[in-house]
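> example.struct
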């Protein structure tokens, strides 16, 4: 792991540089994506209004000439356990974390079909610099889910964002969604099974379950649908 990586926790947003390869900008609940099912919304205890879903934007860097994005996958986990810590220099400690579960909730890949190649202007069309969770870029096809947008990021959930490039370079970021919609993110490298080496200095409560506000009861669905699937299928996520 790169000893110069820095982890910064913020209320509104979180930026992580992953060895110069991938930066995951996590935008808190103040920036929302549309959702199809308000029964999954969490109520703000102060206003009684549904809290918008967190939004994640992956900024991707390329260090090989002519490189491009081949595939992006977001995998959801339901719990985490620290199984080992490894102190390093500069007061930094890397941790091996084993996650529970492991369900891919969103996967896209470059569409290299003949029809798409004819309409594409070249490799630059696949060199995506910023990827919004749930928004399908041009010249890419969605694998998971089969249709429609992926589920919103779940408060209390753990996610691993995987970015695969044409050069063979792959980057990973492990994320925990907090109760208020902000996220903690750490550079990660896969280990055996569902374990990842994570750098550095994990928050003391990283593996502690998140207590979220009460979800809307079914009778509260009369508030109406909050969106039109704007967080997927290529539609622009609302800021």
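> example.seq
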């Amino acid at each position: 792991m790169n000893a110069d990586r820095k982890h910064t926790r913020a209320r509104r947003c979180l930026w992580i540089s992953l060895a110069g390869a991938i930066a995951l900008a996590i935008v808190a609940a103040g920036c929302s994506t549309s959702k199809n099912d308000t029964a999954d919304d969490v109520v703000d205890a102060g206003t009684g209004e549904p809290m918008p879903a967190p939004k994640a934007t992956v900024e991707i860097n390329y260090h090989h000439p002519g490189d491009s994005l081949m595939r992006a996958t977001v995998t959801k986990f339901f719990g985490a356990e620290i199984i080992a810590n490894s102190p390093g220099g500069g007061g930094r400690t890397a941790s091996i974390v084993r996650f529970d579960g492991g369900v891919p909730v969103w996967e896209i890949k470059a569409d290299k079909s003949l029809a798409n190649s004819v309409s594409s202007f070249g490799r630059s069309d696949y060199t995506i610099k910023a990827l919004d969770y749930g928004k399908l870029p041009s010249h890419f096809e969605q694998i998971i889910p089969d249709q429609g947008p992926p589920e919103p990021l779940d408060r209390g959930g753990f996610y691993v964002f995987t970015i695969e490039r044409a050069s063979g370079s792959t980057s990973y970021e492990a994320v925990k969604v907090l109760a208020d919609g902000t996220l903690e993110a750490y550079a990660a490298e896969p280990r055996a099974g569902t374990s990842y080496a994570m750098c550095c200095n994990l928050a003391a409560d990283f593996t502690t379950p998140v207590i979220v506000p009460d979800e809307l009861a079914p009778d509260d669905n009369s508030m109406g649908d909050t969106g039109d699937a704007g967080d997927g299928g290529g539609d622009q996520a609302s800021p």
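> remarks
DSSP finds one helix and 14 strands in the chain.
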